[in-house]
Amino acid sequence: QVQLVESGGGLVQAGGSRRLSCAASGRTFSMYVMGWFRQAPGKEREFVAAISWSGGDVSYSDSVKGRFTISRDNAKNTVYLQMNSLKPEDTAVYYCAAERQKPEVRLWWEYDYWGQGTQVTVSS
Question: What is the residue-wise DSSP string for the chain?
Answer without folding.
Answer: ---EEEE--EEEETT--EEEEEEE-SS-GGGSEEEEEEE-TTS--EEEEEE-SSS--EEE-TTTTTTEEEEEETTTTEEEEEE-S--GGG-EEEEEEEESS---TT-GGG--EE---EEEEEE-
